[in-house]
Amino acid sequence: MLRAIGFLTLLSAVILGVGFFTGWFSFGSETRAGETELRLRVDRENVRDDLRSVEDGVRRGAGAVHDAVTGKAQSAQEPQAQEGGAAIHLDSPSSKLEARVLGVSVAESTLTLQEDAGDQRSYPVAAGSKVDLHQVRIGDLVQVTLISDGAVQRVVDLRVLSGT
Terminal CA-to-CA distance of the chain, rounded, Å? Predict the structure, then answer.
């Protein structure tokens, strides 16, 4: 029991100390007619903003640790996406293509495009890429970045140029 009280006292002292130096709390006093009135002011907005910043930092740090532990970390020198367990190197030969969207399958993660020449082709989206097929509509003019994975070209980036 004594340890719990000591821990709570220490925790309170740390919170008050940190709060005072970060501007969460301010102390004031006023003396009138021989009486001293002490005031403690709490800046709730400042506390809330700081806690959000800490929360965001912890989330980013935890995400980075998770990615590093699970092997999803991407280095700046060698960006890659995971596709069926095999790494697809995004710095491998790539090409850009402007085409009209004929079909979108979010479930199958594929995009069917028609080039200016009239050729139609379906492209799988590389797993691990940041392509959001929910933003694409049939008839949209898009620019996609494709990488070659052997005989298969995969979409690794997508930009909607104009809507239908």
Answer: 70
Give one word for 26, left, alpha or beta, with left for phi > 0 and alpha for psi -120 to 50: beta
Name which of 125, 129, 132, 130 is nearest 153 in CA terms.
Answer: 125
Q: Which residues of 110-131 are buried (b: 16+ CB within 10 A; e: fewer)?
A: bbbbeeeeeeeeebbbbebbeb
In whole angstroms, what is the distance from residue 115 CA to residue 127 CA? 23
pLDDT, tens digit, for every residue of 67-119?
777 765 444 434 444 444 444 444 456 788 888 988 888 888 888 988 877 78
* Alpha helices, H only, the chain: 2-22, 44-70
Tell which residue, 83, 84, 67, has the closest CA to residue 75: 67
Please compute, for residue 108, the number of CA atoms within 13 A of its CA located in the half-sphere on the CB side.
9
Residue with tokens 């000591």: 6
pTM over 0.90: no
CB 29 within 8 A of CB 37: yes
